Amino acid sequence: MIARRLLTLLGAGLLAAPFIAPPAQAAWPERPVTVVVPYPPGGNNDILARLLAPVVERQIGQPLVIDNRGGGGGTIGAGIASRAAADGYTVLFADIGILAIAPHLFARLPFDPDSFAPIIRLTEVSLLVGVPRQSPHQNLSSLLAAARARPNALTFATPGNGTAGHLATQMLMSLANVQMTHVPYRGSAPAQVDLIGGNVDLLVDGTLLPAVTQGQVRALAVTGPSRSPFTPDLPTVAEAGVATYNFLSWHGVVAPRGTPAEAITRLNAAYNTAVADPGVLERARQLGLPLKGGSAQDFVAFIAAERAKLGPVVQASGARVE
Questions:
Q1: Which residues 6+ apart lie within 8 Å of 102 measured at CB?
Q2: Of residues 200, 204, 207, 198, the one with CA closest to residue 220
Q3: Could you report the per-residue pLDDT of 1-54, keeping only the tens digit for each?
């Protein structure tokens, strides 16, 4: 009887005790976010990441830590980012080379091309076809004629195997029926240094506008389907004689697949704010980088379309990295 009464009282006490809820999960972000830039400092990815960072930081209330991890045409850094925890605290500053070209170009990749959650597309860039200022070639026709007369005698620099500049130049050679010798670098900055120094004959890249403006590099053409508003006097490659040529590069931000939707949504909003910032837009204009924006869903569809489009282009170019 006494035991039964004790059990009854104990049960009543438990039922009357106040419910203590588990601690609420803190809203993202609680700490700094690492931005993996898969190229050395000085290229468009690095420049853009640093240009947009101050606005994004103000929007999310946490610092962005830029982590340059160059090598392998961006694939090494992409591999590091793909293996990071999918918690919203690591993102990858990606581009056309990593997300659309590399899956077709490399025999082996250190990451699964589908292991990323797209956040936002940031640019659509017409590359510049540049030669040293002391080059004898005043136009693209002259350069291509020289390459045709002496196969593999001229050299072309790229920021690395599998980069946009690599494929853009391979396409140019294929459509113009010329052969030049590839000199890959670890990023755009060292490739540009050697172009300015006259150590290579050609560089097709999106970082050349300041050097062109300063008279260090001679631009012969732009790679897009129409003339660039930043260089309206420059012809397109198609206008310069390679009739079917058209190549546009782009950049964007992705995260490891499985990153929480809250982080994706807030980062998308923060980067959309950054690409509309007047100060950012003016600096981007000086660099020749047209900025875009949009939803994460738009970027998902865009990557799929670009990857499908560039597969046959890579195959036709004959480029392959074993």
A1: 73, 74, 75, 78, 109, 113, 162
A2: 204
A3: 444 454 444 454 444 445 454 444 568 999 999 999 999 998 889 999 999 999
Which range marks the domain in which residue 142 is found? 126-248
For the record, the structure tokens of 159 come out as 């920021």
Q: What is the pTM of this model?
A: 0.83
What gap in Å lies between CA 264 and CA 259, rounded to an integer?
Answer: 7
Residues 6+ apart with CB under 8 A from 214: none
Q: Are 118 and 267 found together in one domain? A: yes
| 132 and 216 both lie in a single domain | yes
Same domain, 210 and 139: yes
Reading across the β-sheet that carries 90-95, which strands appear in turn? 64-68, 33-37, 90-95, 251-256, 116-121
Nearest to 127 by CA among 93, 92, 156, 91: 156
> Would you tell me how many other CB atoms lie within 10 Å of the CB of residue 237?
30
The model's pLDDT over 190-201, given as tens digits with 9 standing for 90+, comes to 999 999 999 999
Whether 300 is in a domain gets the answer yes
Amino acid sitting at position 283: R
